[in-house]
Amino acid sequence: MKKLICATTFTLAIPVGIASFYISSVPAFAGGVLREANAPHIVHSSLHPNGTRVPNATQHFEVHVQGKELSQLSFEIPDGIDVSDRVMVSEKSGKKIDSTVSIKDKRATIAFSQPVPVETTLSISMKGVNTSILSRGRTLLYPVSARSVGMTEDIRVGIARIQTY
Question: What is the pTM of this model?
Answer without folding.
Answer: 0.72
